[in-house]
Write a structure and sequence with these properties.
Low-confidence stretches: none
Shape: extended
Oligomer: single chain
Order of helices and strands: HHHHHH
Largest sheet: none
Strand content: under 5%
Mean pLDDT: 80
Length: 115
């Protein structure tokens, strides 16, 4: 329906909407089956926090398009730092420990010493 009217953009939106519907149907089926097939411990609170932050970010970033370049850049950097902090806070203690281990074990020497 969207492709003849909107062309490639319509195809992209149709695919996106179909994927969202498919995901929600799969989620509903999995929950209705008592999670017999896919035992996934959904963290609804974390998902809701992430979704609300994402929507607020989209709104904020759409409003900064008309600001000066320096202000826009500062807001983008602030947004990046807040995003990283939010994702870190949303991790469990075990996941935080894994992230700390990965960061401490990372070395720039193998990147710099290319032949």
């Amino acid at each position: 329906i969207l492709i003849p009217i909107f062309g490639i953009s319509g195809a992209a939106w149709a695919f996106f909407m179909a994927y969202i519907v498919h995901s929600f149907l799969l989620l509903a089926w999995n929950v209705a089956q008592g999670q017999r097939y896919f035992a996934i411990p959904y963290e609804w609170k974390t998902g809701a926090i992430f979704l609300s932050y994402y929507l607020a970010s989209c709104l904020m970033l759409s409003l900064v398009a008309e600001l000066e370049a320096a202000v826009r850049t500062a807001l983008y950097v602030l947004h990046l730092l807040l995003s990283l902090r939010l994702f870190y806070v949303m991790l469990s203690a075990e996941e935080r420990s894994s992230v700390k281990h990965l960061i401490r074990g990372f070395s720039w020497t193998h990147i710099r010493s290319r032949p």
